[in-house]
């Protein structure tokens, strides 16, 4: 099972406020160390990117050391959608974890959603960084319409890695649940 995960850190100017850029650096360092910390992540390929006016890959040093991020510019959702569109055209399925404070305009957000809704092979989760993060905006661009807090980074990573590419199919009604035969188990729980 080879899975790819892109973790994109917003390094726009607003990330200078309240030490958010330092929080993000710590989050990226944690994610970079996962393969060493837990064997369940051995087959996971994690790539790191920084995003403001444009997107560039972050070079992770030996031992999983992520360099200290610096922030400037603005979070340009058009450059993010262009980057993701290009990655999606060359990938069967793309998992993206976006670390941001959500400081982008409603108009940019609407354009981003319109562009990203064209892709069924994108799973995007958001992590709110900073006490002033705009949870409403971050939820609006997340595939599952949820946002994780920075302290829940491990849950966010597990959510995106271990969720099926095909999603979950929910029953249409309670009658469908009643008609579905139970799954036979090899084990006898009545012993």
What does this structure look like?
A six-stranded mixed β-sheet has the order 3-2-1-4-5-6, sandwiched between helices. The protein has a single domain (3-179), classed as von Willebrand factor, type A domain (Rossmann fold, 3-Layer(aba) Sandwich). Helix 2 (77-89) packs parallel to helix 3. 34% of the residues lie in helices and 19% in strands. The chain is an alpha/beta fold. The protein contains six helices and six strands; from the N terminus they run βαββαβαβαβαα. The two termini are 35 Å apart.
Topology, pairings included?
Layout lengths: L2 E8 L9 H18 L6 E8 L3 E3 L19 H13 L4 E7 L5 H11 L5 E7 L6 H7 L5 E3 L3 H10 L11 H6 L12
Parallel strand pairs: 1-2, 1-4, 4-5, 5-6
Antiparallel strand pairs: 2-3
Helix pairs in contact: 2-3
Structural class: alpha/beta
| Neighbour order of strands in the largest sheet | 3-2-1-4-5-6
Helix amount: 25-40%
Please count the beta strands (DSSP E, at least 2 residues each).
6
CATH fold call: Rossmann fold
